[in-house]
Amino acid sequence: MTTIRDVAKRAGVSVTTASYALNDTGSIGEATRKRVLEAAEELNFHPNAFARNLKRRKTQTIGVFISRFSGSFYEEILEGIHSVILETDYELLVCPESRSTRRILLHRQVDGAIVFDRKITNDQVLKLASRRFPIVVLDRDLQNDFILPLLLDNAQGVREAFRHLYNQGLRRMAFVAGALDALDNAERMETFLSEAKRQHLHVPVCQGNFTEVSGYEAAHLLFQSAQLPQAVFCANDQMAFGFLRAMKERGLRAPDDLAIVGFDDIPLARHMQPSLSTIGASRFEWGATAVRQLIDFLDNETPFQPLRLSTRFLARQSSTLNAELPPALGATHDSALSS
Amino acid sequence: MTTIRDVAKRAGVSVTTASYALNDTGSIGEATRKRVLEAAEELNFHPNAFARNLKRRKTQTIGVFISRFSGSFYEEILEGIHSVILETDYELLVCPESRSTRRILLHRQVDGAIVFDRKITNDQVLKLASRRFPIVVLDRDLQNDFILPLLLDNAQGVREAFRHLYNQGLRRMAFVAGALDALDNAERMETFLSEAKRQHLHVPVCQGNFTEVSGYEAAHLLFQSAQLPQAVFCANDQMAFGFLRAMKERGLRAPDDLAIVGFDDIPLARHMQPSLSTIGASRFEWGATAVRQLIDFLDNETPFQPLRLSTRFLARQSSTLNAELPPALGATHDSALSS
DNA sequence: ACATTGAAGTGAAACGGTTCACTTCATTCC
DNA sequence: GGAATGAAGTGAACCGTTTCACTTCAATGT
After folding, report:
1. How far apart are CA B84 and CA B99, in angstroms?
2. How far from A339 is each of A10, A272, B69, B203, B261, CA to CA, in Å?
3. Side-chain half-sphere exposure of B291, counting CA atoms within 13 A
């Protein structure tokens, strides 16, 4: 392992000079600089990141904390983050939930963090965030000078979805809720119910927890009620998927027997049979925005700009009555595979 | 930022003692140890990872180098890796292709690497790998004491697929090839063609590059030939997907007009209409095996054990003639969403 | 009674960079 | 001609740990 001392020796200069030359700092003559760079090249020198970070107290790295890799939900967010990182001189460290999370966060192995992992508590985030360690949170409404929440505009998409159902003459609606502690769930439910209320509709709520199975179970519960609803809004796509499975088993068809709407626009949604109406946002843009703001804060102390990511309702087969929608595949395969 | 010195001072011991106590090394009295740990707790002390790594010359971190996040191809591999990491005292650093790759690899910010990114050259891998820096490669056939290739057993699955087609009486077959420089493509093609040869079949080859579009284009090329083949094997699912799109546009149906088989078993494959016959491997197991061997090498110097990951053919609608296959969704949704 | 042992604890030198404060020396200015 | 300036380069402290080599001292063996 060659060190900067080796380089300095070979170039016939002091370690200081070598460091300045390699980092393009200090004032070093052109000839000397060249000699140092050549020596470094010849010795295949690469500065030890630990020594450097230890001294600089900066890592030039952004940490992203997610709960897991699968689900293709994070995928696009990560892609967005990655695409921005590529244009900066920062590096990216992705950390799935585990002990590591604590370690990396606490040991300051990154200069800033993007958090999308409910296992990390609000308290932890609050305690960690500081001018020297800004944090962007994607999954909670937590905010101060050093914490930027970047959330979905749940209300917008849900309102559109409600209108879509309502305008088709559907009146008996039900809501399948996700995890109780999730902000997104609360907002989606709150919006849906209040829209319904404005139309003097009462909407029963089935409690789920965002998993496919809980959607399946919610469906069974609803099937037992005296009168089937005409439309069901599920707080996310996974539950909608489970709900549709239960319907299929019962011989019920969407949208004719029951119109279904989900939330998230997971990749599968457009490929299902019937394709699933849902509410989507650009997760790519989400990730990109997060890291852009974070780096802007780190480099220029630009104050955080909270904002809500716009969502939009996507009418597909599962909720669109008597429409001549093209079959899912033919209509959408292109963008589906473009990723 | 509190340091070990603060802890030592508070506990009324030397820095050395504090370090030994915190790391459970050296020989330290029970009472003293307790006092140190308490002091650390009270001061909310967390050792600086850079200083530690600098001194220890070990990072206790495994680096995974992939070319990108999307495609849901890496997803399961990462999950597999992650699941093993969770049970060890190693951490995980996932690095999408970029300058970072070079930096992290060269600067030894990780103790070992798992490489799945063709942008990293064989030369680089060879130069980097050493007893102190073992590397597992998932995308190339490169091997020495410190480099472990973990590849798919392409032949096995492809052979099964060929038989499946052949046993249904199909004789006119074509092959859509992927990127020329890819080992996987070479092996799949080689196997398919030699199986065909044994049956005295001649199989024309259309060159593609693993992308959906290249599959689409390959289809158009084939459509111009005098006689349509009865079965087409695509070297991966993406191309098969493009091929099916072209067929649809032409009013051709799989499997009746043309039986289609892909390779990879991407999540979409089972959800398409028709569902896509393909060849799959447990990518989860793939990742898990890789990291297990790597850590075993690092911790115990266990020599690398090259092996091929078994693959299996999955008969689905796109290639199964006159069969009563259940509809894709009903049959498979459970495992599809279980992730 | 004295050497031996081993547990408990310590001082200081690393690890490999960065950077502050400083020197040297040629050039410019008045 | 002497002070002022500034470019080029250097020595050494420092970042926060770990760990080698060492001391101290009570307990043990003979």
Report:
1. 27
2. 48, 18, 10, 31, 22
3. 29
Q: Is CATH 1.10.260.40 the right assignment for the domain spanning B4-47?
A: yes
Q: Which of B151, B167, B149 is closest to B159 using CA atoms?
A: B167
Residue A207 has, within 13 A of its CA and on its CB side, a CA count of 4
**B58-151+283-305: which CATH number, 3.40.50.720, 3.30.1330.40, 3.40.50.2300, 3.40.50.360?**
3.40.50.2300
**CA atoms of B19 and B229, how far apart (whole Å):** 72
Domain boundaries, chain B: 4-47, 58-151+283-305, 154-280+313-338
Which fold is adopted by the domain B154-280+313-338?
A: Rossmann fold (3.40.50)
Count the Cβ atoms, other than its own, within 10 Å of residue B37.
Answer: 17
pTM, full prediction? 0.80
Question: What tens digit of pLDDT does each residue of B145-182 get?
Answer: 999 999 999 999 999 999 999 999 999 999 999 998 88
The answer to whether the beta carbon of residue A26 comes closer than 7 angstroms to any atom of strand D is: yes
Q: Which residue has the tokens 């300058």?
A: B99
Is the pLDDT confidence value at B71 over 80? Answer: no
Is the CA virtual torsion B25, B29, B32, B34 positive or negative? positive
What are the tokens at A109? Answer: 């192995």
DSSP A9-48: HHHTS-HHHHHHHHHT-S---HHHHHHHHHHHHHHT----
Distant-in-sequence contacts of A89-92, Cβ < 8 A, 24+ apart = A89/A60, A90/A60, A90/A61, A90/A62, A90/A295, A91/A59, A91/A60, A91/A61, A91/A62, A91/B95, A91/B98, A91/B100, A91/B103, A91/B104, A92/A61, A92/A62, A92/A64, A92/B95, A92/B96, A92/B98, A92/B100
Cβ of B211: how many Cβ atoms within 10 Å?
18
Q: How far is A165 from chain B (nearest CA, A)?
A: 25
3-state SS class at A181:
coil
Helices vs. strands in chain A: H and E counts, helices first = 13, 12
Name every residue whose Cβ is closer than 8 Å to that of residue B271 and which is 6 or more positions away in sequence: A268, A271, A272, B328, B329, B332, B336
Q: Do domains B58-151+283-305 and B154-280+313-338 have the same CATH topology?
A: yes
Chain A window 175-204, residues with Cβ within 7 A of nucleic strand C: none
Of A71, A92, A245, the CB nearest to B339: A71
Residue A92's SS3 state is: strand
Residue at minimum CA to C1' distance from nucleotide C9: B17
The answer to whether B75 contacts A78, with C-beta atoms less than 8 Å apart, is no
Cis peptide preceding B274, ω within 30 of 0 = yes
Query: Residue A106's CB: how many other CB atoms inside 10 A?
Result: 16
pLDDT tens-digit readout, A266-318: 888 887 878 999 999 999 999 999 999 999 999 888 999 999 999 999 999 99
For A59-152+283-305, CATH gives 3.40.50.2300
CB < 8 Å & 24+ apart, contacts of B52-55: B53/A50, B54/A48, B54/A50, B54/A51, B54/A54
Maximum separation of any 2 CA atoms in chain B, in Å:
90
Residues B4 and B22: beta-carbon distance below 8 Å? yes
Do residues B109 and A109 make contact, with C-beta atoms less than 8 angstroms apart?
A: no
- The whole-angstrom distance between A201's CA and the closest CA on chain B is 33
Burial class of A277 by CB neighbour count within 10 A (0 to 12, 13 to 18, 19+): buried
All residues of chain A having their beta carbon less than 8 Å from the beta carbon of residue B239 are: none
